[in-house]
Amino acid sequence: MKKSFEDQLKGLPAKPGVYLFRDERGNVLYIGKAKSLRPRVRSYFQASQDSRTTIRQLPDRIGDIEVIVTGTEVEALHLEQNLVKRHRPPFNVRLRDDKSFPYIAVTVEDEYPRVMFTRERHRRGVVYFGPYANAKKVRGTLDVLNRVFQFRPCEGPQPGRHSGIPCLDFHIDRCHAPCVDYISKEDYRRIIDGVIEFLSGETDPIQAQLEDRMHAAAGAERFEEAARLRNRLFSVRHLAERQAADKRAVGTVDVIGLAVEGDRGAVQIFPLRGGKMVDRYAFHLENVEGQDQTTVLEEFCLEYYGSAPSVPPQIVVPRDVGELDALAQFLSERRGARVEVRAAERGEKRRLQELATENARVALASEAAQTEQRRLRRIEALEELREALNLESLPIRIECFDISNIQGEAVVGSMVVFQDAMPKKAHYRKFGVQSLDGQDDFAAMAEVISRRFARLADRDPAQHDDSFVATPNLVVIDGGKGQLAAALAAMQAYDLPRVAVIALAKRDEEVFLPGRSAPVRLSRHQPGLQLLQRIRDEAHRFAVGFHRQRRETRSFESIFDTLRGVGPARRRAILRHFGSPEAFLAATQEELEGVPDLPPKTARAIYAQLHKAGRG
Question: Is residue 391 part of a domain?
Answer without folding.
Answer: no
